[in-house]
Amino acid sequence: MSLQLRLAKLSHAQLLELAADACKSSPELKNKADALIAQVAPLPAWCVDILMSPDLLPQLFSSLGLSEHAAAGVCTTWSRAYSRQLRRCCYIDPTRVRWLADVPFYPNGLCMLPGGVLAITSCDLDFTEIDETDANYDVNSAANFAMKFVAARSDTDPQALAACRASSLAARRFEWPMGMARTNDGLLACNHDYPSTALYKFALNGSMDELAAVPALAEYGGGFRRCAVHQQTQRAFALGEDKQGAEKHPLFILDSHLQVIATVEATVATRPVLDNDDEGPSRDVAVHGDQVIVLTGDCHPEGPGLRLLDLDGRFLRTIAAGKFRNPHAVTAVDGRAFVVDDCEEKDEENEDGEEEDDEDGEARWRVNQRAVLHVIEIHSGNILQTAPLELSGRSISSIIVDGDEIYIADFNANKVIALRFAGSEA
After folding, report:
1. Which range, 27-31, 163-167, 241-245, has the best average confidence (pLDDT)?
2. Is 13 exposed, middle or buried (0-12, 13-18, 19+ CB in 10 A)?
3. Which positions ≥6 away from 322 have C-beta within 8 Å?
4. How far apart are CA 402 and CA 111, in angstroms?
């Protein structure tokens, strides 16, 4: 008996279930079924107009996420709409990773300058001067704490890059330069490690001379670590550090003349902090709209999360509380916050991990630390995406967003990577 006659003996419900299962397993068969359905029962013209409307499609696709990527395969119009939706949501394409060239040793702070020039604060070691057999050896004698300039993209202005590299700022030596931020007329650079100066401001053009400096404060002689600027008011927000080894990271608010207005968020760590800047209660700071975002770690009394403040430093609310493991850096743009965090992975050679003692003699499990990048909607606090990074955890020093790319510095790996947003704006 032929297959057609055997199928004829099945009920309508059985045939319907069988056809649906077959279409799921065969895209070719599904397309054929869609074409037949369109011939037998075509959609009314008004329905087609709605589903293809350039005004209504953005609303239709506003609820779609990465898991609904099949919508892009319906037609060219839907594919473009889905691509625009991905860009609006600031989803990251983790498969498109670019490694920047000419990155100095131990990259720390990042800041994008005019012409696509990326400024990088670093500790560029001169290995020819290192002699670890010398009892009086001091790594700082071989350290070149400076600011370097590299091409961020293939279309970086070569003249702008050459001017930055020939400036007096490129030849300047620091005590320990860290985070940076741009103002309307200059470049702010934090200085760390018990300096005489906590914050510098340099011109953006010419020889990039020093315009102003903020001296280290008596109670917080550790200087400043990270900073951000509110562009409309030109207020600066800088994370300081006390002299006791990063157990307190207050947030300083400075006016456009770099005068301290207030000190807030002076929270003491809930546990002893080792000699690691990333282990303090406050890890990084960013500005989004009229809100200041303070990234906190696991030794903060409220735990890891994003604390939102107003421009005067008043606490508003916390988002993504308890959602991070060991966060390192944050930036924000277009209603989204981007947080680099640790993702714990067991050692491949020892599935259960390997026990070792820390500096306090307490047993800990040694595991591999990999970095992940969280995309968080600031309004709701929801994590929209968690993307794996080809970087090790615990050494991420900075993250910035410029245009369609996200730049992340890995201090220990001597790398700066660029990730691209998924989708398009067109």
Report:
1. 163-167
2. exposed
3. 303, 304, 305
4. 9
Lowest mean pLDDT among 41-45, 125-129, 353-357, 388-392: 353-357
Quote the CA–CA distance of 149 and 103 in Å, as a whole number. 8
Angle value at C-alpha 44, between 43 and 48, nearest 5 degrees:
75
How many angstroms separate the CA atoms of 358 and 354, rounded? Answer: 12
Strands 291-296 and 251-254: unpaired
Q: What is the predicted pLDDT for the residue at 121? A: 95
Q: Give the closest residue to 308 by CA, choosing from 379, 374, 207, 225.
A: 379
Residue 248 is classified by DSSP as: B
The total number of residues written for the chain in this structure? 426
Assigned CATH class of 92-421: mainly beta
Asked if residue 351 has pLDDT above 80, the reply is: no
Dihedral over Cα of 51, 53, 54, 58: its sign:
negative
CB 116 within 8 A of CB 160: yes
Which is nearest to 145 in space by CA: 249, 234, 223, 81? 223
Q: What is the residue-wise DSSP string for 372-419?
A: EEEEEETTT--EEEEEEEEEETT-EEEEEEETTEEEEEETTTTEEEEE
Other CB atoms within a 10 A radius of the CB of residue 210 amount to: 15
Task: Give mean pLDDT, residues 96-112.
Answer: 93
**Contact indicator for 82, 64 with CB cutoff of 8 Å:** yes
